[in-house]
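Lecture 7 notes: from sequence to structure.
We start with the chain below.
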Amino acid sequence: MADHVAPPARAGDRPDITGWSCPLPLADSPTIVMGHGGGGQMSGELVEHLFRPAFGGQGELTDSAVLPVGAARVAFSTDSFVVRPLFFPGGSIGDLAVNGTVNDLAMSGAVPLALSTAFIVEEGTALAELGRVATALGAAARAAGVAVVTGDTKVVDAGHGDRVYVTTTGVGLVREGADIRPGRARPGDVVLVSGEVGRHGVAVLSCREGLAFGTTVESDTAPLHGLVAAMLDTGVDVHVLRDPTRGGLAAALNEIARTAGVGVELVERQVPVPAPVVDACALLGLDPFYVANEGLLVAFVPPEGAEQVLAAMRARPEGTAAAVIGTVVDRHPGMVVARTGLGGTRVVDLPAGEQLPRIC
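Predicted structure tokens for the same chain:
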């Protein structure tokens, strides 16, 4: 962009940060920090107090917007991917760019139809590396059965990027009769998870800065719209779906609890966490509940349909490790608590900042 000097900001143009509850340094500094991109409390504050007022947004914050178009309902979603490194065990930024947006559409009960993609490429990036990313993106789109129909490319000066950033936007058709959104969580709902927690974040971390954990953990990145279709085919009224990416399982459950004004109670031992993830998190002082996932969903379903939905999930390759992990209660609204193996309980709060930067 050409040099441009913005006019002096007027007092009314500045966001009012007096109601923000972010931890320092945000109270004293008007600058963005890495925690704003972590999917936790700081990300939520930024969206709620800066972006939403600026855009005049209303309604629930969901993975994708659902728009009426004639007699149909169209799901619409966009996402940017800035993962480092670009390639990691089990996937790449190209896979994430497709699967992340496809999954955001699926969390509204939509079948994805088409994607657009935009590449921001740093000057000096090897053409071979960019080609690998594009090839991975195309292969992931074909595997998901969705077309990449349009896009854009920009190049930034050397030193003003990190090789390749990718943004994808997707549209899909919402299944007739589906009403899936965070505000529909109800006391009595059963909380299901489709597989093992924490694999993506640990996979990325394992190959960053030369870290190794004695075994290879592969990312779980995968499209989930087929799994969602199987769940809806049961005829059960699925209330909520969410893919717990940035901020992990903890962030997703807290957002749902706060939106619906309900409490969530987990049974810690019932949450499937693979042993290598447990070991890596213990070594690094991380909680697996806060580690990102890219091929996992959380579902809130009425108790009378929980076993039926769980069976449908386990019959799909993406859901073989699906499990019941908790229930929705009318106590402690807006909070998530976990019953530990020792019989006590702990609060699973929304993460303040970012445990693992640049993971999606």
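Points to note: The chain has a mean pLDDT of 88. The first helix runs from residue 41 to 55.
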